[in-house]
Write a structure and sequence with these properties.
This protein is an alpha/beta fold. The protein has 13 helices and 34 strands. The chain has a seven-stranded mixed β-sheet, sandwiched between helices. Strands 6-3-7-8-33 form a five-stranded parallel β-sheet, sandwiched between helices. It has a five-stranded mixed β-sheet with strand order 25-32-31-27-28, with no helix packed on it. The model has no long low-confidence stretch (mean pLDDT 84).
Length: 671
C-alpha cells in the first residue's frame, strides 16, 4: 500500500488518548457499608468482569475509528499493475476540427477542450513526456516533448479545416508510443466524437496502455451544407447555356425552413433560391448559367444557415472554352455535317491521300471515318496522340483489308476482330452512361438504328458498351488509352441507317464535349488523391505555387508533370478553405476551389452511453475510461486513475461503522 501523504501518519499518536483514559480512571470512589457484605462482594466481582470486557470493546472500537480516520487523511492507494512508477509517456489528441467551433456555455468547444488538456498536463510530473496531437499533424506533434513545451503547444492550437478519423489519429499516436519501451503509457482523446469521423470499430487497441475518452459535446444543431455539385454538361463553352445542380443536405434532427442559397461566379450574383429541408433530408437545386467569356470561372455557393457557419461557403472553379477543334480525316464523311454552322466547334477536314499529319493532330478531337487503307504512320501518330490526351473517334470502313485485330489491340479495344455480315439492330441504350446521361427526358423505347455489317471481337476489360447490338456486340463503345479516350462507332459505313438517325449527331456531339476531360470542380482539404489537371504546359525551372486568394498565403505543393498533364498532391498542408491560384512564373494558370470535408458538417455525435457500450463490447483486457467533461478538474481524477485504487473512502466508512457500533453497544449495556 502506498500513501500519498505520509506526513498525516503522525495523527496515529492520537490513539494514545483513549488508551490513557481507559488505563487511568481518575474518578473518585465512595465507600458504602452494608451489613451483608458477602453477598454484595459476589455481585461486585461479577459486574467488574463484565465492565472490564465492555471497556476493552469500547476502547477497541474507538481506536479503530481514530486509526481509520487518520489513514483516510493519509490517502492510502492500492497501486495498479500498469507500471505507474517512474516516468510516464502521455499522448493527448486535441480535436480542433471545424465542428469544435460550436459554443458550450458561451465558450467554444475547442477552448473547452484546451482547458481539459491543460488540466491533464498539469496533473503529471515535470519528468514525464508528452505528445500533443491535433488534426494538423504538424512535425512537432510527432515527437515527445517536455511538460512546459506541451503546455505551449496546447495553447497554440487553433481551429483547422482539416478533419481526421479517430483511427487515423490513433495510428499516429501508436507509431510514436511503440518506439519507446517505457511500459507506462497513457492515451487521451479529447473530441466531440463525431460519428462521421469516429468509427470506433476501426480502432485497433493495444493492451498495457491506459485509454481515456473525454467527449466534449454540445446539443446537436440543425445544419445545411453542400453535399455535392455538378454540371449537366461535361463541357463549358461560351454562349452555351448549362445547368449547375447543387445537392444540399440537412444533417440535424430538426427541420430547416427558408434558407437562402446563392450562386456567385466571378464576384457576380448568378442566382438565388430558398430551400426548406426536413431533418436528415436532402434537396437538389439548380441554376441556369450562360458563360459569356472564356477562361477560369471562380464560383461560390453561399448559404445563410445559422448557427453553424463554417460550411456556409462552398468553393469551386471550372474552365470555359470559346470552341472545340475537330479534325476529320476520311472520305465521304458524315461527321462534318454534324458540326456544320455550330459556333462551338471548329472543324477541319483532311484527305488520307494528302494530309498534313501534324495539322490534323493539333485538333482536340481526332475523327477517322471511312478510310479504306490508312498508312501505319498515321495510325501510329493517332495512337500516340490519344495516349497524350486526345480523343479519337473511329468509324471504320468494313470493306477495307485492315488488320482489325492488330489495330484493336493497339487501341485497347480488344483482340481477334472480324467482320460479321448480318443485318442487326441495336438492343438498348445505357441511359446512365456518360454518353447519354441527362440527354433524354424519358426512357421510352424508340426504334434503334441497324447495320448490315459490324465488327465482332473479344473486348478488353476496360471497354464500355453503351449501345449493344441484339447479340450484345458493341455498336457504340469506348475505352481509355493512356490519358485519352477511344470511341468506336461499329457500323457498316455504306449500309446502315445510323447516319440518318438522331442518335448519330447526339452521340458525336457528346463525344466531342467529353473530349474536354472535365476537370474536378473542387478539392477537399486533407485529400490524399492527387488533383489532375489537363493541358497545362509548365515549361522552365520555376516552382509551382498555390496562393490563397484572400489571405495571400503561398504554399509549394508536390507536382508531377506528365506530358501536358500535371498531378498536384496537396496533402494536408493547406490550412483553410477558399480559392487558391495555381501560379507559375508569377502568372495564374488555374484556380482551385478547396473545401473542408463534408464529414465535418454532419453534426451527429457518439453519446457517453454509446462510448460506454463500445467499451463494454470490446474483447480483450483494455484499460479504458470514459470521463465526463463536466468535471471541474479532470487533473485530479487522472492522478487518481493513474496511481491506482484509492482506499480513503473505505476507511471513512469503516470509521463511521465503528463509531455507530460503539453507540449501539453503549445504549444496549445501559438498558
Amino acid at each position: 500500500m502506498h500513501f500519498l501523504r505520509p506526513e498525516m501518519l503522525w495523527g496515529l499518536t492520537a490513539l494514545s488518548v483513549p488508551i490513557i483514559v481507559h488505563l487511568f480512571n481518575f474518578r473518585k470512589h465512595k465507600t458504602l457499608y452494608f451489613p451483608f457484605t458477602s453477598f454484595l462482594s459476589e455481585v461486585k466481582t461479577e459486574s467488574h468482569k463484565k465492565s472490564k470486557i465492555r471497556h476493552w470493546v469500547i476502547l477497541l472500537l474507538r481506536l479503530l475509528a481514530i486509526a481509520a480516520i487518520v489513514l483516510a487523511f493519509a490517502q492510502p492507494i492500492l497501486p495498479n499493475d500498469r507500471g505507474n512508477s517512474g516516468k510516464k509517456l502521455v499522448s493527448i489528441y486535441l480535436d480542433n476540427s471545424l465542428s469544435m467551433e460550436n459554443d458550450k456555455n458561451e465558450i467554444s468547444l475547442l477552448d473547452h477542450a484546451k482547458n481539459k488538456a491543460l488540466d491533464i498536463v498539469f496533473a503529471y510530473n515535470d519528468n514525464d513526456l508528452f505528445q500533443i496531437i491535433s488534426n494538423d499533424f504538424k512535425g512537432i506533434q510527432q515527437h515527445f516533448v517536455s511538460k512546459n513545451k506541451a503546455i505551449e503547444i496546447v495553447q497554440s492550437i487553433q481551429l483547422s479545416s482539416i478533419h481526421r478519423s479517430i483511427d487515423e489519429v490513433w495510428e499516429r499516436q501508436k507509431d510514436l508510443l511503440e518506439k519507446d519501451q517505457n511500459p507506462n503509457k497513457k492515451v487521451f482523446w479529447i473530441s466531440d466524437f463525431q460519428k462521421s469521423t469516429s468509427n470506433l470499430g476501426d480502432i485497433q487497441l493495444i493492451p498495457d496502455i491506459a485509454y481515456r475518452c473525454i467527449p466534449v459535446q454540445n446539443e446537436e444543431s440543425p445544419n445545411i451544407f453542400v453535399d455535392s455539385l455538378y454540371f449537366d454538361s461535361p463541357s463549358h463553352l461560351t454562349g452555351q447555356e448549362e445547368k449547375l445542380l447543387v445537392k444540399l443536405k440537412n444533417s440535424g434532427n430538426t427541420d430547416i425552413q427558408n434558407v437562402r442559397c446563392e450562386l456567385n461566379i466571378n464576384d457576380q450574383n448568378k442566382g438565388v433560391t430558398s430551400v426548406s429541408i426536413p431533418a436528415g433530408g436532402e434537396q437538389e437545386v439548380s441554376f441556369q448559367i450562360t458563360p459569356m467569356g472564356e477562361g477560369i470561372q471562380i464560383g461560390t455557393i453561399i448559404l445563410n444557415d445559422l448557427p453553424i457557419q463554417f460550411d456556409n461557403r462552398h468553393y469551386f472553379s471550372y474552365r470555359v472554352e470559346s470552341s472545340r477543334t475537330i479534325g476529320i480525316l476520311g472520305e465521304n464523311t458524315h461527321s462534318d455535317e454534324v458540326f456544320f454552322n455550330d459556333p462551338h466547334f471548329k472543324t477541319s477536314s483532311y484527305s488520307a491521300s494528302n494530309v498534313d499529319v501534324q495539322s490534323w493532330l493539333s485538333n482536340e478531337v481526332l475523327i477517322l471515318e471511312n478510310n479504306a487503307n490508312l498508312s501505319s504512320g498515321i495510325l501510329a501518330a493517332a495512337i500516340e496522340a490519344t495516349k497524350d490526351g486526345k480523343t479519337l473517334i473511329l468509324l471504320p470502313n468494313l470493306t477495307s483489308s485492315s488488320d482489325w485485330s492488330s489495330l484493336f489491340a493497339q487501341l485497347n479495344l480488344g483482340t481477334k476482330a472480324e467482320v460479321v455480315s448480318q443485318n442487326m439492330t441495336g438492343k438498348t441504350l445505357d441511359y446512365e452512361s456518360v454518353l447519354f446521361r441527362n440527354i433524354f427526358d424519358s426512357k421510352e423505347k424508340f426504334a434503334l438504328p441497324y447495320a448490315e455489317k459490324h465488327l465482332k471481337w473479344t473486348p478488353s476489360t476496360s471497354l464500355v458498351n453503351v449501345l449493344p447490338y441484339i447479340n450484345s456486340d458493341p455498336m457504340i463503345a469506348y475505352t481509355s488509352l493512356g490519358n485519352g479516350w477511344v470511341w468506336l462507332i461499329n457500323v457498316d459505313h455504306d449500309h446502315t441507317n445510323l447516319f440518318g438517325h438522331s442518335l448519330f449527331p447526339i452521340s458525336l456531339l457528346r463525344m466531342s464535349e467529353l473530349a474536354s476531360f472535365p476537370q474536378p470542380l473542387n478539392f477537399t482539404l486533407g485529400q490524399n488523391t492527387p488533383l489532375k489537371l489537363k493541358n497545362l504546359k509548365l515549361e522552365g525551372d520555376n516552382q509551382l505555387q498555390l496562393q490563397h486568394r484572400t489571405t495571400q498565403e503561398s504554399f509549394i505543393p508536390l507536382v508531377r508533370n506528365i506530358q501536358n498533364n500535371i498531378e498536384i498532391s496537396m496533402g494536408s498542408f493547406l490550412p483553410a478553405s477558399g480559392h487558391y491560384d495555381l501560379r507559375w512564373n508569377k502568372n495564374s494558370v488555374y484556380t482551385i476551389g478547396v473545401n473542408a470535408g463534408k464529414e465535418e458538417s454532419q453534426l451527429q455525435f457518439h453519446s457517453t452511453e454509446e462510448l460506454e457500450n463500445w467499451k463494454s463490447n470490446l474483447s480483450g483486457n483494455f484499460e479504458i475510461a470514459i470521463i465526463d467533461d463536466e468535471m471541474d478538474n479532470i487533473g485530479n481524477l487522472v492522478t487518481k486513475m493513474d496511481d491506482g485504487q484509492h482506499l480513503w473512502w473505505f476507511l471513512v466508512i469503516f470509521a463511521l461503522i465503528s463509531l455507530l457500533t460503539e453507540s449501539i453497544l453503549i445504549g444496549i449495556w445501559k438498558m
